[in-house]
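Deviations from the work plan: none for this task. Representative record:
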Amino acid sequence: MHIYANPKRFLSLAQWLTPLLFWSGLVLSLGAIVWGIINVAPDRLMGESVRILFIHVPAAWLGMGGWAGIAISSAVLLIWKHPLASIAARAIALPGMTFTAICLATGSIWGRPTWGTWWVWDGRLTSMLVLLFLYAGYIALAQATAREGGSVKIAAIFGIVGAINIPIINRSVVWWNSLHQPPSITAGGSSIDASYLWPLLAAVIGFSLLFGGIVLMRMRALIAEQQVEARLRRRALDDDAPVAARPMAESA
Amino acid sequence: MKAKHQRLVLVILALVAIVAAGLIATWTLRNQANYFYLPEQMAAEPPAVGQAVRLGGMVQAGSITPQPDGITVKFVVTGNEASTVPVRYSGILPDLFVEGSGVVADGSLDADGVFQATNLLAKHDENYVPRELEGLEAHQPSDYADTTIGID
Amino acid sequence: MREALDHWDYVIAAYAIGLGALAILIAWSWQAMRRAEKRRDEVKRK
């Protein structure tokens, strides 16, 4: 856990973990979706549109889980100054935002035939939209600090402060009267029939694995970019100081 | 105290402060952020006649009565307590609008205490039950499907 | 009067949008990783 922690060990781990997470996640999530579209009985009230469940719920879970990941990475960065933490947080942001957007889009499409409206400004929908904007703000901030050479702490603080929205989203349907229904899965059990619950669980696990694979891909890209930058900078320094020039072989 | 521990304490303190601030803010928002009024809330603090509000609750079993003009329905919304609000609505009904299920209505109270709805939204509950199993459930909203056929 | 919508249209639309966005995300992340690691290996070799 040193500030100059060598990413080599992480890279050798990511080398085989990336395809493993990606392919297992893809197979599991697509399998669950196909099962959910073909093999599940229509709901007593919602009818066929209940099938949207198998993409809407995993997307919501990963949208919120993604920000939890950003917040945890940010805390690790601020406390232990671990260099991988800021890379992890940056790598999570875009997949998290995409899943939040998928959650909002599929929820909107689901709302039209069931509730009778595409969108309402109730607590759940509004707080989820706020999460989307938080992701956009985080990405812009992280990119600006990376490009302008600012401190990575700025984005990390934003990541921690933004985490307050996560429990608000979770509790919004309990605290306030909302059009969105209360949680189906609570500590006390589930009010989802087993024939929906099992494929839903498979979809959640599958999409989570896929999410992990995508995050690893993005982390590897960020690490590679940093390595290139560091190498070019070192080379430029060597060129600028011919007096103290050492043999090129040493820097290669 | 090592610098690392100092940072740890600082971050934890900051987190606690943020969570507390968020909780206080949402607690004070408790009533303002409600999307609709329950019947008992409307009975306790009745809105002015003609004031645009939202009413939400359950459609009372057996209360949907189609009117002779074909597009108007009357029904009764119940909440968690005894108070109920009669509603009158003309227009297209959402597919999930059935007796014993949730509803959210835009509109206003008229002088007679009847809620004149301009728009209806169906509110689904947290139960997901396949159609074949509905008879096994304790309460079966689509048992009332027969009564909704009349207003199709 | 009932709306009587065909729910299948909405199911198909939801999955088309959701899986489409996911496919773009995956393709982009994969390509970014490939390109960045390739460039690193090139710079390393020089």
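The domain at 39-149 of chain B is CATH 2.40.50.140 (OB fold (Dihydrolipoamide Acetyltransferase, E2P)).
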